[in-house]
Structures are given as structure tokens and as C-alpha cells.
Amino acid sequence: MSRDEARARAKALVSQMTLEEKTAQLRFNAPAIERLGVPAYNWWNEALHGVARAGTATVFPQAIALAAIFDEEFHGEVASVIAEEARAKYNAQSAHGDRDIYKGLTLWSPNINIFRDPRWGRGQETYGEDPYLTSRLGVRFIRGLQGEGKYLKTAACAKHFAVHSGPESERHGFDAQISPKDLRETYLPAFEAAVKEGEVESVMGAYNRVNGEPACASPALQDILRGEWGFEGHFVSDCGAINDIHLHHHVTSSPAESAALAIGAGCDVNCGTAYVSLTLALEKGMVTEEQITRACERLFTTRYLLGMFADDCEYDAIPYTACDTKEGDALALRAAEKAMVLLRNDGVLPLSQRVRTLAVVGPNADSVTALEGNYNGTSSRYVTLLAGLRAACEARGIRVLYSEGCHLFKEHVSGLGGKDDRIAEAVSCAENADVVIACVGLDGSLEGEEGDAYNAAAAGDKLDLRVPQSQRTLLAALEATGKPMVTVLCGGSALNVPEGNAQLMAWYPGQAGGTALARILFGEVSPSGKLPVTFYEDTDDLPAFSDYAMAGRTYRYYAGKPLYPFGFGLSYTRFTAGDARVDAAARAAEATVTNAGDRDGETVVQVYVRAKDSADAEPNAHLAGFARVALRAGESKRVRVTLGENAFTVVTDAGERVTPGGRYDVYVGLSQPDERSCELLGARPEHLEIALPRG
To answer: Is 46 an active-site residue?
Structure first.
């Protein structure tokens, strides 16, 4: 159905509604209008890495882990499965009259904010720190969710618009002061791509203000969104954000004023309670019925596009049995395998056939929570790290010794136990094993959204880059045994854990995480994930968390030596990339990639660009293109990488994107061109210099 047809039908339907009925439809929990055949509908549903919070569904790796795969096509496959399951659950639940929260077709995903600071607890929900990577994955996720049929399969939502990435404790009253350059260069490109390329049906406003204007009631942001980019879908507030306008931002003094400000600026549906005051705002002349009608028409346009009032919607036939399938589980396993990043390895991995006893230790070893991340569904197929390793070891005749080792963050495990009450057991396991697998890190109780995480002092954000003291004590004790140790980190953000002969970033790997881990540790799969964020040594090198200027943060602006750089990840095999070429006119680069090792594997070709002659260029080269490639041992392949439309542009201080012309450095290889990446990989990307006219 075309938008014009859906809009016409929406107008006709809304014209039959009373003012009271129209106003009620602007709340996230819209009531039924029985006389018009309109069922109740709850706009709030989540699908960040699987259908969330409404029972059984495939739980894929967390969004930040999916970003580590660096694969647009694969990302679209994941989104397509999520959309299929969302429709399956919607069809079944609505057939039983269940139209509760988390059961609709408007999915408030993806989160395409920029993960600019490793302390942000919600950074795990994003695709990392780079605007280009975020743009490409965001567009593919949106397309996968919305489908290519006559109707929308589901309606995606790009959030949180805009300039939003912590601190969580200040988000309700925070004013993000941002320069025109940083706004256009870093914070807006992913949203622009979501609207123009992804044709996203919905955009969600953020809690914070942006240069003084509440994001959910910002004329400046709406001018960009609807005026400049041509967005035609509906706009939804973050939950409670409109009440924040008077309660915390103090821009208005009452719910009616806040509601009037938001709907006047173009916010169509309110997640929260503020729009209950729209009737009062209308009576006081703060809003017009035309504004209410406009918002209502936008919302029903989306419902018509979803085929909710159609008898020929191709997705109505999707059965409940399309949810939680073995095919979905297989895709979740592939995703976890591709996402895990090998950070270091002195040769202990893959595990030798001589290993006869394995110690699996740590608070995340047998934790389902460590698989899930946040905004997750509930799987019927969880394989914890311990379960995956035990199954692999049993098949190989290897004995497994297990100890929780310590609590995730408390001093003791047992309620009446003394401090470090599992250390002796953990050390005993290590002493009797050939290799120790230490499963440590974080989970959603330590990093996440305000109100969800346990660490109330930080409201879900991290205070530093270390694991909790309980785990540091455990790791020190294990390392003191002298046994080879592999540290497996669960988490959604940068960590600095110095212990271990090898270290694998497992992220929050989803329902098949344990199986994926075992396949990687035993060498059935070569690790191939790449970091979508910079791992720093310490936060002392970073600007203040509340400073939204990009200077000094992320790989594009950081001047220090990172612990592990953006785009970095080791393999069990050795890849080379050479004979690079760049065709600027065609916006493409290519190189011959060879698997020079003795194992099959996958890697990611990365292209970075910097305008040499422009004072407006970022300090460091920026990612301009990437392509994942699978190669058998000894195989070579010519790989072509499409470059983004902004590859050869810069953004001026005034916020204008231009092609400056002159000389450009182009780097084609398997990493960034920075010294740390070259040091860790022992190889450099090929460097080419090209010249372009000013555009």
C-alpha cells in the first residue's frame, strides 16, 4: 500500500472521530473505538536483538555484538527473523484479544545513537561509536524489520533523536550543548540515513535537551527531520520525556504546557501520561484541534501501512509456530560466532588436543543473564558458557571442573559466607586443570538503562573500565596458580582486564552463546569479530562524560594510545590484503585478500579516508567502507568495497558538509591505519593518495 493511499484512508477514518477519541489515540496505550471498528492498540514494543519482553522469542546477540560482525547483509537476515517472530506473536496474541504492551507491530528499534563514551550503560544497545557503521547497520536493520511486501511487516523506530548518550543519571534534565560541526558530522548521519535510505516509519525523541530545546519538542530538530530530510512517518516521545519538560527541564510549568509544546513541534504519540492533559491544553488555547488531527492521521497512516485494517495483508497468515524455530537458533549461533572478538592470544588458543581437564570459573560461566544484555526476549534454548563448554568437553573426553569463583559484584556468594568465599574452590579447580577459562565481566544488572541496572550510584552507567573488585580478586588468584588462562569477557562496552594468556570479548552473546564460545575455543570456528568501539586504557584519558564535544573521543578524534582500537580483532589464521585500488568516481575500493594461514576463516576489509588539505577534516582517518569476506585456507579473493556517499566530504564548523577537494589519504586493509592497530596485527593497510576537485 502506498503512503498516499494509507494517508487518505487515515484521513477518512479520523474525520469520523470525536475530539475526545482523537486525543485518546495519541497515547501509547490507545483505547478501542468500537463504533468505528478500531481495536485497542499499544504502540510500545521492543525488538533490539529479538522480540523483547513478551515471552518466548529468539534472543540474538546484543546490538553492540551484532555491530562487531561488520556485515550489512547478515544484519538484515537477523532483522528479518525478528520481524517474522514479531508478526507471529502479534497474530496469535491479537487473535485472543491480547493487545497489551510489548505485543504490537511498532518496534521501538534500532537504537542508532553514537556510543561516544565507554561509561554509558546503554551503549550496548547501539552499533558503536562510528557514524558510518551505525548508518549502514541501522538502514539494514530497518529494512529487515519493515520488509518489502505490499504492507509493512513491522514498523521500525530510529531512536533516540538526537544527541543522546548519557549520563543516565542526568538524562531527564540534561542539556546537550553541541556544535553545528559535531551535530552534522557525528550525531545526525545515522538518523538521516534511516529516514532517507531506510524509510523508517517512526522516530523517537530523546529525554535530553539539545542546545536548549527539549528533544521531544524541538522545532529545530523537527525542521531537520521533516523539513530537510522529508520524514513522513510518526514521531514518538521517549517514555516520560514530555513530563520531563516541566518536571526537570523547567521549560514549561505544567503537563498541559508540556503536551502543547510537544504536539505543536510534531510529537504524535506520547509514551507517558502528559497527553492526558491535551484536552485541558485545548481548552486553554495552547493547542488546536488541527494539531491533534494531524497527529492522529499520522498514527493511523502507520496502522494502515501495517495492514491492520486490511483483508489482504500477506503477513496475517504467519503462524505462531514461526517463532522460536531451529532456524532462528542456528542464525543466533552464527551471529554469536561471528561477533566474538579475539583481543589477545599467546598461543593457548585454540585449545590443544592435549587438554584433558578444563577449569571453567567465574560468575558469568553459568549465567543466563550474561547471555541476554538488555531489552531482551526469553529464549527456550539458552546455552550458558558453562553448558556449551561442558558439552564440547564431554564429546572430547575432557573433564570439566566448575566454580562460580565469586559473586558478580558482591564480596561473597553465600548469604552467610565470608569475604571471597569461593576463591579457594576456584583455585582448587585451576590447580587441577590444564587450562582455566575465566568467565568474567558484566551483565545487565551492572550496565544498562537508568532504573534497570543494580548500580544505583551510576544509574546504569559504569564508573570506570574495570570489572568489579570481587572479580579482580578472583582473576589475581587464578593467575597466581600459573596455569594457562583464557579470560572470556561478557559485556556491552569497553573493559580493561589485564589477566589472561588469551582474551575473548564475548559481549552478551545471546541464546547460543555457550555453543559459540566452545566452537571458537576448540578451533571449530576462527574468531572474526571486530571492535565497533575503542577500548581505552582508562577513562582518565577521556573528556568529562557530560561533555558532548567529540574532541578527544572515539577513534576519529582520540590522540592517545588505545588498549584495543576500533576495527581490531585477531584470528586463528593469517590474512593479508594487497594490490589496493580506489575509484573515487565510482565510490569504491578493492583489494586482493588472501588467507595465508592453515585454517578457514572470515575477516573484514576496512577502508579509511582523510582529506589531507582540509582544516575541517577529522584528526584521524574515518571509516568509509567495509566488507566481510570468508576464505578457505590458502584462498585469495578480489574484494570490492562500496564507499559511503560522505567518504570524501568534511563538515565545516558551520555544519555544512562539503567536498573540499585536494589530496586524500585512503587506507585499504584489515584495520585502521593507526600505530596501535599496526602494532597488534603486525601489518599495515595499503596507503594510497588521490586527488579530487572541490565539489
So the answer is: no
